């Protein structure tokens, strides 16, 4: 039958979901999620002031959002001490990544990342026909020296590094990041994913918007507790950031997002409280893991990677046994990382469920064939 | 200085905003908008039940949205009597258009639309390197026969038609649309924009998801009063609709959108009330126009195209004079349509401002050099 043909790139792409949501798992298994600790959201939620502001704003949702995101960009610029045209707002970091790849990657262009790093970045690269090249982790850290070296060797158009890192929760010293940035050619776009910035122990490398090839991505989804609204922002020089205006869905960042992110940014006291609460939750997750004979990795993020101390198949069995108990966690799949499960920080009620479920899950996993 | 190079397509694109928002106009002119009647929003707002539901849901915005939009797709499917995998949800019709173009248009592919039709569609076509070809309006209607003919002649990959039409507010009979659909080759994607469906006088052509090349786009931005949240949906056969899953930003439709659209869909009584209120506002806009010696066109939408009965420059002067009075309206720019201004339906308070401002604006425009 005659039908329209997709582009050559699209024809080769699978229908996919980079992350299957816990809602889908519930629909498939019929098991209600009792502890939602898998998506690195913040169970501590957004600031009560954000909730109040959002509630008050709902009657205004009949107007289109400001396509320039003027107020939010201005507030972020003031906070960061840069110009507002050095900031772009997007539908989460995911949305910004898709736009970034579209701006720079032609079919066959090389893009360098770590094996086991953020899969949605890879999804977008493949979606525009990029040629992904992988550098293995050095233990539980991404390997910035090797990433920069591979970018140079391959003439890569783009290189990705997250600091702090997902899925391992590790952080590299700012000095290492500065060396990495200097070691990447100016013609190669550096995508520095700082989604977990707020929970990191060390201040990041200073912002330098003169650099022609550095885009830093940040989000309101983690410490700010607003994953449901999807608000990410990109920081970089005027040429890079302005280019989003050539291709973006200008009205894509909706009014709820604009209102909530502004309010979240204004409530610094809540952010500090949430960061402390996340740190306390990490400590408790580590204790729960260790009480059960597992090893918790140090974390600079809002989750803890827990080494199940056997192979990837075993860690997967633990994850599945936790799911059967209504505890939603995720795990890395890459070789060398796959013996870990990844548990998000959350309030005590959720961690109580985890504490009760983990020994049961381990017993199940150990008795599995 | 060495810097990363954009793709060839992006290099040629300007930084742009398809529609300058009234917020930007306020920032530029310092004149506060007293009547927001330019963006075809609904000043009647969403249902009070939607507002209440949204308010109740705000504490849950810490979790990522369901990337499958399962509940909303299911509800729409039930309403429309089709399968849920024949529906895709996107960040407004704008977002869906960008994805559709990306799925099908390679550089140089021909895309047919009407001269003066929705500019954001054109923005996306140009953004993927498509070759836009234009058919003039036939009076105040798009010309479906000519659109189909040009699509055939040029071997177009895609053809766009809005019914009801924006910016003229006209509607074509369903029989004409059915003939148009049949006249377009099966290899050419038909983008049937039904943003203004709810306010149309006649039922649309029946949904036929067996057709391999028809995508219908609908929205919660117009009669449902939720422009600020940006929720559009696409209806079509499984192959077309499923393809969005190859490229979309899966978490791009946020939780506020999902919650609000579901609640809006459930409140049919409010929709009927809003459609009636919009119809009454159209009647009043027409009366205001005619009281001032202008001609209001019949409207099947939530706005009225008003013929200023001189040339495009005069209509632009009227628009600017209205803006000086704090009345935000828009106007078509295409030859043959540009003597019109486009006034959105709104509540009486806004139309009172319009009624007072229009004679003043006309006097200014008439005395302009």
From TrEMBL, chains A, B:
The keyword Transferase applies. The keyword Protease does not apply. Pathway: Amino-acid biosynthesis. Pfam families: Aminotran_1_2 (PF00155). InterPro entries: Aminotrans_II_pyridoxalP_BS (IPR001917), Aminotransferase_I/II_large (IPR004839), HistidinolP_aminotransfase (IPR050106), PyrdxlP-dep_Trfase (IPR015424), PyrdxlP-dep_Trfase_major (IPR015421), PyrdxlP-dep_Trfase_small (IPR015422). Its cofactor is pyridoxal 5'-phosphate. Residues 37-358 form the Aminotransferase class I/classII large domain. Keywords: Aminotransferase, Pyridoxal phosphate, Transferase. One of its GO terms (molecular function) is pyridoxal phosphate binding. Gene3D superfamilies: Aspartate Aminotransferase, domain 1, Type I PLP-dependent aspartate aminotransferase-like (Major domain). Belongs to the class-II pyridoxal-phosphate-dependent aminotransferase family. Histidinol-phosphate aminotransferase subfamily. This is Pyridoxal phosphate-dependent aminotransferase. It comes from Devosia sediminis.
């Amino acid at each position: 039958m005659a039908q329209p043909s997709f582009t050559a790139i699209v024809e080769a792409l699978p229908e996919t979901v980079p992350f299957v949501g816990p809602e889908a798992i519930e629909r498939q298994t019929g098991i209600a999620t009792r502890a939602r600790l898998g998506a690195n959201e913040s169970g501590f939620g957004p600031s009560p002031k954000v909730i109040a502001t959002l509630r008050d704003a709902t009657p205004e949702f009949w107007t289109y959002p400001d396509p320039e995101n003027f107020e939010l960009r201005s507030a972020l610029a003031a906070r960061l001490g840069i110009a507002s045209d050095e900031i772009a707002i997007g539908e989460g970091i995911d949305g910004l990544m898709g736009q970034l790849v579209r701006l720079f990657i032609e079919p066959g262009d090389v893009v360098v990342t770590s094996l086991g790093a953020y899969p949605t970045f890879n999804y977008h690269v493949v979606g525009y026909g990029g040629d992904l090249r992988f550098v293995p982790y050095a233990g539980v850290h991404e390997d910035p020296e090797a990433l920069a070296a591979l970018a140079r060797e391959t003439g890569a158009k783009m290189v990705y590094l997250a600091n702090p890192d997902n899925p391992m929760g590790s952080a590299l010293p700012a000095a290492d990041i500065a060396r990495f940035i200097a070691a990447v050619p100016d013609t190669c776009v550096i995508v520095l994913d700082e989604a977990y910035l707020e929970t990191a122990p060390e201040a990041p490398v200073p912002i330098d918007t003169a650099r022609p090839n550095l885009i830093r991505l940040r989000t309101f989804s983690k410490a700010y507790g607003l994953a449901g609204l999807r608000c990410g922002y990109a920081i970089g020089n005027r040429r890079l950031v302005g280019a989003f205006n050539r291709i973006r869905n200008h009205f894509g960042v909706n009014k709820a997002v604009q209102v909530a992110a502004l309010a979240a940014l204004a409530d610094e006291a809540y952010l500090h409280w949430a960061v402390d609460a996340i740190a306390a939750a990490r400590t408790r997750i580590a204790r729960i893991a260790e009480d059960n004979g597992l090893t918790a990795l140090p974390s600079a993020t809002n989750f803890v990677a827990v080494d199940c101390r056997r192979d990837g198949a075993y860690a997967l069995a633990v994850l599945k046994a936790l799911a059967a108990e209504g505890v939603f966690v995720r795990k890395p799949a890459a070789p060398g990382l796959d013996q870990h499960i990844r548990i998000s920080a959350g309030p005590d009620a959720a961690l109580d469920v985890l504490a009760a479920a983990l020994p049961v899950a381990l017993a199940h996993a150990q008795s599995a064939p």
